[in-house]
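Comment thread on ticket #2218

A.B. wrote:
> Attaching the input chain for the structure job we discussed in standup.
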Amino acid sequence: MDYMKEFERWCKLADSETVAELTAKADDAEWIRYYFQGPLAFGTAGLRGTMNAGTFAMNRYTVAQATQGLADLINREAGNAARGVLIGYDSRNNSPEFARITASVLAANGIKVYLYDELRPTPMVSFGLRHLGCIAGVNITASHNPKEYNGYKVYWEDGAQISLEQAIVVSDSINATDIFEGVKSCDYEAALDEGKIVIVGPKLDEVYLENVMAQQVDPKAIARTADDLKVVYTPFHGAGYRLVPEVLKRAGLKYLYPVPEQATPDGNFPTVKSPNPENPEGFALGIELAEKIKSDLIVGTDPDADRVGVMARGKDGKFVTITGNQMGALLLDYILTAHTENGTMPPEPFAVKTIVTTELAAAICRKFDVKLHNVLTGFKFIGEVIYQSEVSGHGSYILGFEESYGYLKGTYARDKDAVVATLLIIEMASYYRKKNMTLIDALESVFERYGFYVEKTVNVTMAGLDGTERMAKLMAKLRENTPKTVGGLPVVAVRDYKEGTITAANGSVTPTGLPKSNVLCFDLEGGNTVVVRPSGTEPKIKFYLLCRGENEAEAKAILAACEKESASWQ
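C.D. wrote:
> Ran it. Output below, let me know if you need it in another format.
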């Protein structure tokens, strides 16, 4: 693409507001080159980018063009259009507008549209499209990214994100569709009046909430501690603001304290630098409130309410973060323990985690004789295992989780769900409270029983025009010069998911058994692992350090050594 010619074409054909934005950037050659270098990559995670003019950004034109690509995919088979598409959106700036544009393009292509009447948690798109029998779903969200971003996630009829093959079809269609002249659209209000677009309201919320409530392992646990359990909650200005409090109320929680400054939707996220529950600094207002009301627990959900973070008091009285890996392990251990104690363990139980998620899960599953599936990064792969279990008629899904604070119990959805996760976290906290234990005490108990596991994700940003090239060079270098040791520990096997191979230290090669992906895993002596993976949604290389030891000091020493060596690769 000739970026300068495309820029000039936009200046002629775009709407007046966009032209004004472009005119202000007319002398910024680097900006023009970056945002007109080509289209945003459309993958299994859809689109994600900053909100501004240009082909390499999120705006009304790129959203419409992507939707035309989706419409082309849907209309490849007869009958799909009548089944329809469910559209949801979060609290981000422009999300409602992008949702309406998506609806108008789909309707113009003869596809039935269902549109939520206001923002909803991401899992409600996955759940809702399955409940309505839709062929696909779209959610306008950029998850936990900063306020400048928005995104476009596509789900298929099984409730999981689309496959790589489907993403390629959409991407090819985008590339073949003129962004101004090749997109079909119609008047939104007219399509609404004609019934081509149907607004979905609170009735579907009720069905969703019934499914969430059904995931409690012990439905009476929260009520038993309701008189003395206080919980501070922040939706980080996002979509969890209504349904998370509602589900906790229904479970019997009496004392829930939303953080007032963060309790209502706001796409500017004015109280945080980034609305990411992985970042402890975002919980500052929550800590203030927790100190005031004497709460031991703070829960935060991200803007689209598919991820949840927790802070709990340590023995010194200060609040500490429970990481995504730690919370996943806590939930898995609690659910399996509660099922065992209650005599409710389902037949052929199994759990699912991603290859970059703590191996503590494997130790827990071994103890309870539960099968554990390892899948590629992305909840769609967890959803695929659930689907395969249902098709085969074997296995009972217990829990799926990933290190980035995403959890799902139940098969009503095929994506992570902060609403059900929050419910289970409070149930678990209530269970341990009856034993005079905090969640920090529970975590220490897990380490005592299974060994000490510590994990860290190091993000190396590679932004700019040459970012993609730099990431490719780093991955190529590691493949060509595979390290024999990392952090002083011998490499016992290299898992190269791009090649689909596991190469042991003795030279033997076996298949990974997973789809191909640009990921390298270095398995080290003692059950430690270092994973290198380019991000699919941001210009970053991610280093996942998964370490273990007989005690905290040993595990942290191994982690520090692995982090130091992996830093030299960058």
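A.B. wrote:
> Thanks. Noting for the ticket: The mean pLDDT is 95.
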